[in-house]
């Protein structure tokens, strides 16, 4: 599958840079980190994934533990993620970093996690402000 199916190829390139020096740095900084790819639940039509199996394979090679929440709608089959070294499971609560394409429902935000997803909160759209408020309340952004 092409990287066009991934919503975050820039993130993947950042995390899985192919230069030796950067890969050494990444390996030191993320080795043992647990990253989760969450199932998209905002729309039944959403098939995109924040990372593809090739990106997961590189992360696993660099020492990152990757959990993929099962989804029968995702553009990539679950078996491809599993073959890339990801663990397929419903519970992603052990992950310190959670990535997705669309925003996480407010009731599923877990405190003290790093989230990476697209949202329209920066536009100050009234419907999206509760999510921004919840993130500011539950998540330590500035440390």
TrEMBL record:
Gene3D superfamilies for this protein: NAD(P)-binding Rossmann-like Domain
GO molecular function: saccharopine dehydrogenase activity
Biological processes, Gene Ontology terms: lysine biosynthetic process via aminoadipic acid
Record bears the keyword Oxidoreductase: yes
Annotated InterPro entries: AASS, AlaDH/PNT_N
Domain Alanine dehydrogenase/pyridine nucleotide transhydrogenase N-terminal, chain residue ranges per copy: 36-140
Signal peptide: none
Keyword line: Oxidoreductase
One Gene Ontology CC term in the entry: cytoplasm
Name of the protein in its database record: Alanine dehydrogenase/pyridine nucleotide transhydrogenase N-terminal domain-containing protein
Organism of provenance: Halocaridina rubra (Hawaiian red shrimp)
Lineage: Eukaryota, Metazoa, Ecdysozoa, Arthropoda, Crustacea
């Amino acid at each position: 599958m092409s990287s066009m199916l991934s919503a975050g190829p820039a993130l993947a390139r950042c995390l899985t840079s192919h230069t030796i020096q950067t890969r050494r740095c990444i390996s030191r900084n993320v080795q043992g980190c647990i990253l989760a790819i969450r199932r998209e639940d905002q729309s039944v039509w959403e098939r995109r994934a924040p990372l593809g199996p090739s990106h997961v394979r590189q992360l696993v090679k660099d020492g990152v533990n990757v959990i993929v929440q099962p989804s029968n709608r995702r553009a990539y089959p679950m078996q491809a993620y599993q073959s890339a070294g990801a663990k397929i499971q419903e519970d992603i609560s052990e992950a310190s970093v959670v990535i997705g394409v669309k925003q996480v429902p407010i009731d599923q935000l877990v405190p003290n996690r790093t989230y990476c997803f697209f949202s329209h909160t920066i536009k100050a759209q009234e419907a999206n402000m509760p999510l921004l408020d919840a993130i500011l309340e539950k998540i330590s952004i500035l440390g």
